[in-house]
Write a structure and sequence with these properties.
The protein has about 260 residues and is α/β, with parallel strands linked by helices. The protein has one domain: NAD(P)-binding Rossmann-like Domain (Rossmann fold). Helices cover about 40% and strands about 10% of the residues. It contains eight helices and seven strands; from the N terminus they run βαβαβαβαβααβαβα. It has helices at about 10-25, 35-45, 60-70, 100-115, 145-150, 150-170, 200-210, 240-255, and strands spanning about 5, 25-30, 50-55, 75-80, 120-125, 175-180, 220-225. β1 (about 5), α1 (about 10-25) and β2 (about 25-30) form a beta-alpha-beta unit. The longest helix has 22 residues, at about 150-170. The chain is globular, with a radius of gyration of 17 Å. The relative contact order is 0.15. GO terms for molecular function: oxidoreductase activity. Keywords: NADP, Oxidoreductase. InterPro entries: NAD(P)-bd_dom_sf, SDR_fam.
Length: about 260
């Protein structure tokens, strides 16, 4: 049986994947932003081994999440499921990066840098990366600022950037299967009520990757719902652009992605 950590698992895809993995007798750790949400998540997934607490809009708290996880021991699989879509600019106090972009890109970078390397590391992407600006400039909105910030295009950009980050990590982490997943547009707090895809189709891919029920020699691969390998924008394979994303994350966090 596998030891699995799923960030952002108080509701939606993360919670449902956790429930199914617990039912399949895996040791599953949840993650919540605060104590209140942690208690609610534990109640919704009573078989979980525990709930780690950290606000992933903070460098210090994200680092602390990695410390909590490492104290438990090495994980077989980590799903970096936490994400944000709609909302205001909301500058994070320790970096000045908009909260959405921090949660979607910088928090996964910090965890990739600091977690004891798992066998399988899953980044959450989106088909909306196809609508992103591909120039990889000012990815943290330092030049454009709050006045030019629009949440939907910023989200699309962040999902392109996290895919580039996943590919950069895949090139570095030998012996770890690093994947990116489009879980589908489903009815969740993030996806909204008008979503048209089925939650179970996205969860099916989560469960497959968590359990390792695929060719684990695959790394730097993008999955769609229903366990299918997808075809991302070719620009996500551009190593020079990947390294620009890594450098931007390094400059903000002071952390270097291990070779």
């Amino acid at each position: 049986m596998a030891r699995i950590l799923i960030t952002g698992s108080t509701d939606g895809l993360g919670l449902e994947a956790a429930r199914q993995l617990v039912q399949r007798n895996h040791t599953v750790y949840l993650h919540a932003r605060n104590q209140e949400r942690a208690a609610a998540a534990q109640a919704k997934c009573p078989g979980a081994a525990g709930v780690l607490i950290a606000d992933l809009t903070s460098v210090a708290e994200t680092r602390n999440l990695a410390e909590q996880a490492n104290a438990i021991g090495a994980f077989d699989a980590v799903i970096l499921n936490a994400g944000m879509l709609y909302g205001p600019f909301r500058k994070t106090p320790d970096t000045g990066v908009p909260a959405m972009v921090f949660v979607n890109v910088i928090a996964p970078y910090i965890l990739a840098c600091l977690l004891t390397r798992p066998k399988r590391l899953v980044f959450i992407a989106s088909t909306l990366h196809r609508e992103a600006n591909t120039d990889v400039k000012d990815i943290f909105w330092f030049q454009r600022g709050e006045e030019q910030f629009r949440d939907f295009p910023a989200y699309c950009d962040s999902k392109l950037h996290v895919m580039m980050l996943a590919n950069a990590v895949a090139r570095r982490f030998k012996g770890t299967s690093v994947t990116a997943v489009h879980p589908g547009w489903v009815v969740t707090k993030l996806g909204g009520q008008s979503a048209t895809d089925k939650l179970e189709d996205g969860v099916e891919t989560y469960v497959m990757l968590a359990e390792g029920d695929y060719d684990q020699s695959l790394t730097g691969v993008y999955f769609d719902p229903k366990r299918k390998i997808g075809e991302p924008l070719p620009v996500t394979a551009d190593e020079n652009l990947q390294e620009l994303v890594v450098k931007a994350c390094q400059d903000v966090t002071g952390l270097t992605l291990p070779a």
